[in-house]
Write a structure and sequence with these properties.
The structure is a homodimer.
Chain A (H helix, E strand, L loop, with lengths): L1 E10 L6 H12 L4 E15 L3 H16 L5 E9 L3
Antiparallel strand pairs in A: 1-2, 1-3
Amino acid sequence: MKYDAEVKISLKKGMLNPEASTTQRALALLGYEVEGTATIKIIKFTLEEENEKLAMEEVDDMCQRLLCNPVIHDYEINITPSDA
Amino acid sequence: MKYDAEVKISLKKGMLNPEASTTQRALALLGYEVEGTATIKIIKFTLEEENEKLAMEEVDDMCQRLLCNPVIHDYEINITPSDA
């Protein structure tokens, strides 16, 4: 069975996010006053697995080993059966 | 009134995404077979505006002028009233 996985990676609270602060400063220079800017990355892919639970475990494994840095990142995994 | 804005930026269909293909190759090297890898970026912030429609227009403006490159990116804006 094929599953669509979506991994949402954000920086842990308190971590500096230079990309977000640069964006906020650049917006201010253009006259847009915004606050609390944050960035999130999503990685999406499709994988073959027997059931949803195993798919979730496999993706969690990928996050721990490659996709995320558990020291600085929080992550959230979403698994849905693939339409294809 | 304060609004939370979320801008979801993805590459247009057909654009090469070296970050995604590198991720997919690295996962394969670790023994995880996945396909159709894609990446999406989300930028979140809070802004002050009179109503939701004006907030949407202002954020769309920011996308056109700074946040996105309309030649290569698709974007999707989500505005919700801020809890704070």
